[in-house]
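Entry type: protein chain
Record version: 2
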Amino acid sequence: MRIIWIICKNTISVWLRNRSLIAASLLPPLAFLAAGYFAAAAVSHSPVALVSLDKGQQGVTMSQIIHSADVFRVTDASPAQAQRLIKDLRVAAVITIPADFSQRVATHQPAPVDLEINNLNLDFTNDIRRSVPASIVQYYQLQGPSSPIKVVVKESDLRHRDIELFQYEVVPILLLMVLISGLVNTAVSTAREFEYKTIKEIMLSPVTNTQIVFGTILAGFLIGLCSGLLELVICLIFGWTHLPSWRYEPNVLLFISLTALLSASLGLVAGLSVKKIQAAHAISANTALPLFFIAGGVGVLAFEPGWLQNVASFVPLTYANHGLQMAMYYNSTDQLGRDVAVLILVTCAAIACALILLHRSRSRLI
């Protein structure tokens, strides 16, 4: 254990002196985090102009419902102002409550709410097409027995809480931080030993292959774990995510740790395979990002095409992502055993592969 710890400390000290390597492992996930934050802010609430021409009770009620729908960014405007806003692409739609809206409701006549949409972007368009009818349904529901259309809405949620778009993306980005930190740093530090020829000194010393492997993996594990916990703390400080109940906090730490261990093991395999710093950096960084996207980094994997779900089932990050989301968002242990088992088995396979590669390298050098 003493030798393993010495190898670990040496690897971490080299990493701490290499600012470019620290930046390469920390900046991409932080950039994804910032991009996800601004993207979610842009698409979570559709910008609309509301033209309320009816000052009667029913018109005011309809206007209040649209304002409180929590799906729009509403700008109150006159008809002329609304047309300028939609023409200048400052709003995606114009919602108009006609001047005779209250009168038509009182006389039980059709009382349409006019909707003008700029279908430049289907995402915004479909959100508005769904949200405006939902607001009208809420309007009739609030009228109760006096409503000419009897509407009763009963909602049964499958999950105990609603997760916003950006909050949902925090978990895969957090795992990307762990994956890149462990994978890149372990691969590069291993390749450096071969490129600078210092690996000969290590292999000629009375150090076993097992000690070298576990010492290097321990260093990568600690770097990945600390990077993941750092991002988690940042997200908690800014309110971008929340810890689950205390019973599920160990599960959060478990999946971050298993991902860090997996990334360090894969990084060691990559470094032993290429033995060049530049190649190790390229292959590890270009491996982490595709795994992130395939595992559902920017979407809900369950709603993706079937072929992509089949591919994702062979990506271990998929199971880390699922397990961490269940723990952090839903206070659930759904398929916990499967997720943990897959991560442990892939990690063990990577360690075995690293021992084989190191044994072959040692045979050639000695």
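Comment: Residues 2-39+164-365 form one domain.
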